Amino acid sequence: MSRASFRALGYAGTLVSLGLGGCSGPVNNQQGHMPAQPVAFSHAVHAGQYELDCQYCHVGAERSRHAGVPSASVCMNCHTQVKKDSPEIQKVATAVAANAPIEWVRVHRLPDHAFFNHASHVTAGLKCQTCHGQVQEMVRVEQAEPMTMGWCLDCHRKMSTEALVAPTPSAPRAGELLALTSGTPLPEPSKSPRILRPPSDCSGCHR
Amino acid sequence: MSDPLPKYWQSLAERATDAAWLEPSRDEFAEELPVGVAATPPDASSRRDFFKLMGLSAAAAMVACQRAPVQKLIPYVSRPDEVIPGTALWYASTCEGCSARCGLLLKTRDGRPIKVEGNDEHPVSRGAVCAVGQASVLSLYDASRARFPSRDCHRVSWTDLDTEVKAGLRKVAEAGKAIRLVLPWVMGPTAEAGVKRFLAAHPLARTVRYEPLGELAAIGDAYRLTHGARVVPDHRFDRAQVIASFGADFLGTWVSPVAFTRQYTEARDAAGRRAMARHYQIEPVMTLTGAAADRRFVVAPSEVTLALGDVVRRLAVKAGRTVPGLSGLPASRLEPAHLDELADALWSHRTESLVVCGGDEVAAQVLAATANVLLGNEGTTVLPTEGVELDEQALSYGELLTELGAGGVGAVLFLGVNPAHADPRGAALGALLKGVPLTVALNDRLDETAILSRLHAPASTPLESWGDAEPRRGVLSLRQPAVAPLHDTRDAVESLLKWADSPVSHHDFLRARWEAEVFPHVTQAGTSFDAFWDDAVRRGVVTLPLAPTAPLSFREEGLAKVLGAVARPSVEWELVLFPSVALRDGASGNNAWLHEVPDPITKATWGNPALIAPSRAKELGLRDGDVVQVRVGGESLSLPVLVQAGTHPSALGVAVGYGRTRVGRIGDGVGTNVFPLASVVDGRVRRSVPGATVVGTGEKQKLALTQTHSRLEGRPHVREAELAAFLANPRAGNEAHGGHGGNGAHPLSIWSGHEYKGHRWALAVDLSACTGCSACVVSCQAENNIPSVGREEVLRQREMHWMRIDRYYQGDEANPRVVHQPMMCQHCENAPCETVCPVLATVHSSEGLNQQVYNRCVGTRYCANNCPTKVRRFNWFDYPHDEPLERMVLNPDVVVRSRGVMEKCSLCVQRVQEGKAAAAREGRALKDGDIQTACQQSCPAKALHFGDVNDPNSRVAKLAKDGRAFRLLEELNIGPSITYLTKIRNTGSGSGT
C-alpha cells in the first residue's frame, strides 16, 4: 500500500468519525465554553454590582483589534485598599510583587485567519453584550454566542440593509492628543455621519 | 497610428527566438510532480502515520463536541502607557544600511520591530527607503549574530572583557606601541565624538578609515586635492537639466541613492510639464542608472576616466581655461561626435548641469570636480560645503597594513568593518594580526575579521541602539532603538566610551552632546531642552539653520600629478567589480530577502555570475551558466557567466559582496568572493582591474534567474514615447488600445460586471518614474510575510514574490534601451482566475479587489494557469519558519500561508482595512493618501499611487484618465484595476520607437 493511500485512508477515517460523533453545530462552535480561571474574578460583582465600565479594564476595545486583558496592576488600583485579605486578591498581589503575569484561560477564541477588530465594532456603537452575552451577570465568564462565521455574517448582512448611523466616537482622533499638548490645530471631525456598512467581503476579515 | 509597436524582449534567447532556451518557460509550472529534492524533508507518510491518524480520528469522535485546547491569555503585569496590544507603535530612526543615512519609521507590534518605512519628514530621503533599508529589520532577527562577548570564541562576561581590554590598552601604552581604530568613514557626529574621547584617553591611538568600495574615500581625496578639504559634496539632481554620469550608479548604489532617485524623478517629471532633464550615462557594464539613461554610451572600463577627460578638455576649451595635466591624458575611444554632443549639452546648461563619477579612482573624481567647476555648477547642483566632512587625520587601510608588517602596532580595534572579506589583501590580515598583543572586533557576529581577533565585543544592531547622523550639513538625524538588545550585545560607541574610562551610556552621551552642541543652534525661544529633545526623538530629524560658510576655492596645483598617472592599458579583458543593488559590499550577506530579490538588471538571485557582452560570448562560444576561469596576477577564480546585453566587449562585470564564509547559515557560500581579484595601486584598492585572462572550463552551473520564468508571447506590455512626441500629443506611444477599437471598450462581454457602491481600489504605476530599484519588492515581502524560497526553488521557478519588476529590452543587444515594469496582481474586473476556481477561493470584493481566500483554496492551481499576467504564487511547501528568532519578523496582520494554497498580491488589504477602520473609529472621512500600500510607501521614485478610483479627486482616478494611461492585455477584456503610464524618454531623437 502506498504512503499516499495510507494517509488518505487515515483522513477519511477521521472525517467519518467526526460525522458519527453526533456533532450537530458547526465546527469550531464553542458556545457555552466556561473554563475555570486562575483567579476567581467575578464580572457579576465588578461589571454588574459595581457597574464598572467594561473599558476601565479592557482598554483596547475602542482603539485596537484586541480588547485586551487588563494587567494585574489595574486590579491593584483598587485592591490595595479593597478586600486586601481575600485569598484571590492575594494571588493578584503576589503576581504584581513577583512581576509574574496571571495566565488567564481564553474563553472567546476566533481562528487565527479571522481578523476581528474590536475597535471597529465598539466605535460603531455595538454593546459588548451583543457578542459576549450578559457578562455583567456572569460569575465565571462563558461564551454566550456561537461566534462562527455564519453568525458574524448574519449580523453584517442585516446591518448593511439597515444603514444605521454610528454614535459620535468617544476615542481620541488621530493627532488629537498631540494637538492638546503641542497646540497644533485639532483634526477636523467628519461632517458626514458614519453610516454602518459592515463588510461581507472575504477580505473584510481574512487577509 | 500605423507604426508597429517596438519589439521588446526580456532575454537574449527570446530575442533570437531560440526554441530550446525558451522551452522551460512554456508551461506555468516548470516541472510536474513528483517534486524531487524538496526544501523541506520529503513527505514520509507511512503505515505509522496511518495509525496515528486513526488514533486521532478515534479521539476526534469522542471529543468532537468538546472544547478546543486551552489557550492562555497573558497580559502585562503593568502595561506601559503607550502600548495597546494589537496596535502598532512607530519609532522615528535613521538607517545604517549604507552611508547615506536615510530617515526611517520603525513599526513595532507588541514590542517587536516588524517593518521599516520611510520618514516623510526627513529632508534627505523624504519618505522612501531602499531594499537594503527595508531588509534591515530581518537582519535584527538574524540567528547567526553573536549573542555574547567572547575571547577566542569562548563566552566571557562584559566585565571580564572590559578588564582585559583596558589592561591590554595600558600595556600597549607602556610599551609605547600604536593603537589603531579601524572605522567606517561615516559614523555620525556623536559616534565621532565617542571616537575622539577614546583618542584623547589613549594618546597613541589613531583612526584608520576603511571602506570596501572606496567611493567616499576617492571623492574625499579628490576634493582634498582640488578644494583643500576632505568632503563628499551634496549633489542636487533636481536642479540639473543635463546629468552626465561616468560610471556612477547614483540610482542604485552610489553615495545616497534614495535621495538621488527622488531628485532625479523630480528633474524628469515630463507629465508635470516641467522641463525634463536629459541623462547621459557612460559605463562599461549596465547599471540601474544606465538603464534609466536617455543616452547611454558603452565604453571599456578604463575608458570611463578617459572619456571624462575628453569632456573636460572640451569644456576647458569652451571656458577658455587650461587645466594642468589634461594634455598628458590619453584620448578615449568614444566617438568624438558623442563627446561633442555631451560637452555641448553640458555647456549649454551651465550652472544647471551635473557631472558625477563613480568608482574608486581619485583622478576620475578630480576630473568630475573640475568639470563641475568649469560648468559653474558649484553652488547649484554641487555643494561642496553642504555635504559630509570626512576624517582629515585618518590613516588608510593600506597604511595600517604597512604598520602591522613593521610590527609597531600594539592594539587593533575593528568597529563593524570586515576587511578580511572585503579587501584583496584580506588573506594576509590573519598573519599580520598574530603579532598584535590586543585585537578586538566590535562586529555584530564572529565574521571573517572578528574570527581573526582575540576578543569579540559584539555590537548591537542599529535597531537596538542610539545614535545620530548628519547626512547633509545641518540635517541631524537621530537613531533611536525600537527594541532592547535581543542578546547580550552592547552598543559599539558605549564600548569605546567604557574603554576610554568614561563609562556613560550612548543615550546619555548623545543627549549631553545634543544639549551642549545642537540645542544652542536651535532658535526656539522659551523651549526647554527636554521639550526640544522629546520632539527631536519623536520626529527623528532636526534641521538646523545653516550658518553661511566660505566657499571652497578650486586649486589646480595638484592636478597635473594625479592626472599624469592615468594611462590607457592595452589589454584584452578588464574586470569591473561593482556593488550590487541589494548586497552592496556584502555586509548584509546573511539576509535572505536581499539574496532573493532579483538583481534589477540581470534578474539573478542567490549568486554573482560574471557578466559578459553578447558579441564576446558568441565569439568564445559561451552561454549562460558556462563556468570560466578568471585569472588576474596570481589570483584565479571560477565563475559562471551570464550574457548581459549592454556590456562592453572587453569588460567582465562581477558583483562584489558575495562568497562570504563566516556570515551565517543563509549567506555562507552563496556566490563567489571576487574582492581578491581587485588590484591594489599605491595602497589603494581598484575595482576596475585591467589585464585579466578569461578561459572557458567546459563546466556548467545553473543560474537562478527569474526573468525567463514568464513569457511575453509577443504582446506589447510596455509603451513608451519620446519627450517631443509626448509634448505634442499626450497620448503619444499609447495609441494602440486592445484591437477592439476605441479605448479598450469591448462591445461584448460574457461577464455581467460588478457594481462598486463605495470604494473601488486601484493602483497607478508610472513607468517613466520607475527605475527598477526593487525597494518595493522587499517592502512587499516584509509586509506580507512572503517566504524566501532559496536558490534551488528559484531554479524551479517557484519564487514567491507577490510583486516582481519585469525588465524589458528594446533594440540593439550591444546597448539596448530598458523599461522596468512593476508587476503585481492586476485585480481584473473580469478576472480569469475567478472564472476557473472550482471552490470559489478567489472571488471579487465589493471594492474591486480580487480576493484570495486561503482557507477555501484546495490547490488546483487552475487560477495560476489562467492568469494572463502570471502573478499567482503557489505554496509548494510549508516554507521554513523553524528558527524562532526569525519568526519574530512576521506581520501579525497577515496570515502565514500553508502548503498547498495559492497566494498573490492583495493590494495590501490589511492596510486598506486598517485605514478604513481608523477613519471610522476616529469619526473622519477617508482621504486620498490615507492608505498607502507597502510598495508605494517605500518607492523612492514615487512611481506607485494607490487610491479609490470612485473618488474623482483622487490621484489614482486622475491618473487612470491620463493620456499616458494604459492597461495590460486590453484585447482580452480582463479590465485590470492597475493603470500603467507610458514611459517618456528624452533622447533628443525625433521618434521614440
What this model shows, in words?
The complex is a heterodimer of chains A (207) and B (993). With 207 residues, chain A is an all-alpha fold. Chain A is 39% helix and 1% strand. Chain A contains nine helices and one strand; from the N terminus they run H-H-H-H-H-E-H-H-H-H. Chain A is globular. The model of chain A is unreliable at 16-24 (pLDDT under 50). Chain B has 993 residues and is of the alpha/beta class. Chain B folds into four domains: 8-19 and 708-742 and 760-985, Alpha-Beta Plaits, CATH 3.30.70; 150-213 and 393-506, Rossmann fold; 237-380, 3-Layer(aba) Sandwich (Dimethylsulfoxide Reductase, domain 2), CATH 3.40.228; 570-705, Barwin-like endoglucanases (Beta Barrel). Helices cover 27% and strands 20% of the residues of chain B. In chain B, the strands form twelve sheets. Chain B has an eight-stranded mixed beta sheet with strand order 7-6-19-18-17-8-9-16, sandwiched between helices. In chain B, strands 24-26-25-30-23-27 form a six-stranded mixed beta sheet. A four-stranded parallel beta sheet of chain B has the order 13-12-11-14. Chains A and B meet through helix 1, helix 4, strand 1 and helix 6 of A and helix 3, strand 2 and helix 27 of B. Strand 1 (104-105) of chain A pairs antiparallel with strand 2 of chain B.
Features:
heterodimer, A: about 210 residues, mainly alpha, globular, B: alpha/beta, Alpha-Beta Plaits, Dimethylsulfoxide Reductase, domain 2, eight-stranded mixed beta sheet, 29 helices, 42 strands
The whole-number mean of residue pLDDT values of chain A reads 83
Number of domains of chain B: 4
Instruction: Determine the CATH topology of the largest domain in chain B.
Output: Alpha-Beta Plaits
Adjacency order of strands in the biggest sheet of chain B: 7-6-19-18-17-8-9-16
The run of helices and strands of chain A is HHHHHEHHHH
Number of strands of chain B: 42
Number of helices of chain A: 9
The portion of residues forming beta strands of chain B comes to 15-25%
CATH architecture of the largest domain in chain B: 2-Layer Sandwich
In whole angstroms, how far apart are the ends of chain A?
A: 39 Å
Work out the strand percent of chain A. Answer: under 5%
